Amino acid sequence: MLTVATHSGTFHADDVFAYAILKAATGGDLTLVRTRDGAVLAPADVVFDVGGVFDAGARRYDHHMRDKPLRTDGAPYSSAGLVWRDFGAEAVRGLLPAAGDEAVQSVWQALDAGLIRDVDLMDNGATTPMSGHFSALLEAWNPTFAEEGRDETEAFLAAADLAGAVLLRTCARAHADVLARREVAEAARASEDPAILVLDRRVPWEEAVFALGLAQVLYVVRPAGNDWTCSAVPPEKGSFAQRRPLPDAWAGLRDEALAAVSGVADATFCHPARFVCGARSREGALALARGAVAGR
């Protein structure tokens, strides 16, 4: 059983997240103490966001001192980022028990650069506060002046439950990105034509295509419910343009009209913007992709 300690009184997103991370890393085998009394803090196994000390070896994770801990790029840490640095990988393993070591590291890095860093920056006033920011929403769990008698630690734990749920889902999505990258890489290796990527599941492909540097891929074929689609790859991530748009003659056509022009009998549609078209079968969508490569 690990005893973890943070300050009493008003809590912020960083100490809430730090606790959620420790809970995930230990499988919930921990006891929380909230105090500002140094004598009570001293015997705790982990102390975060209080105490005036950052010493990873002693498991002390405050960041409120003049010589505050910084990331390599100069961005300030909060207690969430400091705890994530040392306990994040174990938290990912606890939340995603099926993930291998390489996936755990990738998920850790994704959160460190995203959700956790964002909490760090908000807590340090290094980004613009917004009422709808997740940090602000978590802090809304603090008892208000009109809730006299509401227990602060109960409120902290309720906020930590929400933070833990968000941590789990963010890890799960980051892990899905890792798995998608693997599937896209395997599909690229198996492709008969480097311009066409065929996925047999509806895997999100755009992030992976750019992460893997698949510069030759023009079209991605994958299932969509009972049908299949052929999507044109953008020139850069997030762009609404295409490396090569679908043929102009297909734009806006549906069913028989598209089948007649494309030569694909089960073709179903082509978007007027020429970034996606579809067919009823895998073979039909692949035929559309081949036709698009040939410029038909």
UniProtKB/TrEMBL annotation:
One of its GO terms (cellular component) is cytoplasm. InterPro entries: MYG1_exonuclease (IPR003226). It comes from the Bacteria. Belongs to the MYG1 family. This is Metal-dependent hydrolase.
